[in-house]
């Protein structure tokens, strides 16, 4: 009897990866707290896999202003099984397998979220693959199809090409037809990039990617630059745009260069940001735009449409998340290190 009630008590405790304070990977720890209850319009999901994103790493370093103040639990995406419905929820039944965007708190074995942030996982897809879709693929989808409107035959520069978003971009570019992609990544990842459809992998450690792309394009440059690096790279990206070209800024990874935040790096990178004026853009026929999925919560119809389209593309075999590693919550620090040491190819997924 006593063992039964102790077990019951255990199952009602939520386990989560906490960022205890800003710092190196050692500030991560697994803690247990009471299970959350779904509010009106919410579902509760027993999480089977959660995506680890670059922004989670930056949040731990104290470099991601959108993250809650530590101690906190981050994580923007989950896959699992609905186990409880809040008042007025009719869209899902208990037991449905779902993938979802969450506004933090994803690195936990239970999450409560508005029902409209979830979509059903197709039968043939596993939880780990499903957890790798919401953030990376939605970001890639939104940039390519809504913001940059990439057309057949265009040239697209993709930075961090072997990361989660980068591989999603490469796979989605293949669905457009004739798109020529230039992907920057460490040399050891180039075979995978080619296999994912990258036309020209470029090792930015040993090669000046601006010079290389000029060579490859007879000096013309590219139509679209997707840049999550920021600072001086935004300037370089602008210099590579052909007339009618579009630069999409969607991250500032250059702020993060080691295990911890560095003030010197912050200042250097801030000074590298290009000054852009409407007149300058007009004269050069350039478009500069920004994407931040974390600021689109008020546009859930748009986000759901994208997620549903991605489920359809995955059913057609056009979208197959590449899982780099599946890491238990207890080893989350190792997963963070794998990203900052540039070792991941594709998505790292955490499991409770
Ligand atoms: N705006 C949005 O809505 C949104 C959504 C999702 C992601 N993002 C941004 O997109 C970028 C990619 O995210 P992700 O989750 O796909 O990345 P990821 O999978 O964690 O990619 C990590 C890889 O990026 C490369 N890299 C380049 N600069 C780096 C640096 N300073 N520190 C560590 N690694 C670096 C490394 O590979 P190589 O050595 O091969 O270069 C590394 O293995 C990030 O900047 C992220 O913040 C933005």
Model description:
The two termini are 27 Å apart. Strand 1 and strand 2 form a beta hairpin. This protein has two domains: 2-132 and 321-351, Alpha-Beta Complex (Quinone Oxidoreductase, Chain A, domain 1), CATH 3.90.180; 136-294, Rossmann fold (3-Layer(aba) Sandwich), CATH 3.40.50.720. Helix 4 packs across helix 5 (164-174) and helix 4 (134-147) packs across helix 11 (300-315). Strands 3, 4, 5, 6, 7, 14 and 15 form a seven-stranded mixed β-sheet that branches. It has a six-stranded parallel β-sheet with strand order 10-9-8-11-12-13, sandwiched between helices. The protein is an alpha/beta fold and 352 residues long. The radius of gyration is 21 Å and the shape is globular. The longest helix is centred in the last third of the chain and has 16 residues, at 300-315. The protein has helices spanning 2-11, 54-61, 127-131, 134-147, 164-174, 190-195, 209-216, 232-239, 263-272, 278-284, 300-315, 332-340, and strands at 13-19, 28-34, 42-52, 77-85, 97-101, 110-114, 118-120, 155-158, 180-184, 200-202, 222-227, 241-249, 286-290, 323-328, 347-351. The chain contains twelve helices and 15 strands. The structure holds NADP nicotinamide-adenine-dinucleotide phosphate. NADP nicotinamide-adenine-dinucleotide phosphate binds next to helix 2, helix 4, helix 5 and helix 12. The site of NADP nicotinamide-adenine-dinucleotide phosphate (NAP) has 30 residues, from helix 2, helix 4, helix 5 and helix 12.
């Amino acid at each position: 009897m006593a063992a039964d009630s102790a077990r019951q008590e255990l199952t009602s405790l939520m386990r989560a990866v906490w960022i205890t304070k800003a710092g190196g990977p050692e500030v991560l720890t697994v803690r247990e707290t009471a299970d959350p209850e779904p509010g009106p319009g919410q579902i509760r999901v027993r999480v089977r896999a959660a995506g680890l994103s670059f922004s989670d790493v930056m949040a731990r370093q104290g470099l991601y202003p959108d993250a809650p103040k530590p101690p906190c639990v981050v994580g923007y995406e989950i896959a699992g099984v609905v186990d409880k419905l809040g008042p007025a929820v009719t869209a899902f039944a208990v037991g449905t397998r779902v993938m979802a965007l969450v506004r933090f708190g994803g690195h936990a074995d239970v999450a409560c979220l508005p029902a409209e942030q979830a979509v059903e996982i197709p039968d043939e897809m596993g939880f780990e693959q499903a957890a790798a879709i919401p953030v990376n693929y939605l970001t890639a989808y939104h940039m390519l199809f809504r913001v940059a409107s990439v057309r057949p035959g265009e040239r697209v520069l993709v930075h961090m090409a072997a990361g989660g978003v980068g591989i999603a971009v490469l796979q989605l570019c293949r669905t457009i037809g004739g798109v020529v992609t230039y992907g920057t990544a460490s040399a050891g990842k180039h075979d995978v990039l080619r296999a994912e459809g990258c036309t020209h992998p470029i090792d930015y450690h040993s090669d000046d990617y601006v010079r290389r792309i000029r060579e490859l394009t007879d000096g013309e440059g590219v139509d679209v630059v997707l840049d999550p690096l920021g600072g001086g790279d935004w300037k370089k990206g602008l210099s590579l745009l052909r007339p009618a070209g579009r630069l999409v800024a969607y991250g500032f990874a250059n702020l993060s260069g080691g295990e911890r935040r560095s003030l010197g790096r912050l200042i250097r990178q801030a000074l590298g940001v290009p000054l852009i004026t409407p007149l300058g853009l007009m004269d050069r026929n350039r478009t500069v735009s920004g994407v931040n999925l974390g600021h689109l919560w008020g546009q859930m119809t748009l986000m759901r449409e994208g997620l549903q389209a991605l489920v359809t593309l995955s059913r057609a075999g056009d979208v197959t998340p590449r899982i780099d590693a599946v890491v238990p919550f207890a080893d989350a620090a190792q997963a963070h290190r794998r990203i900052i040491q540039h070792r991941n190819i594709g998505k790292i997924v955490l499991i409770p």
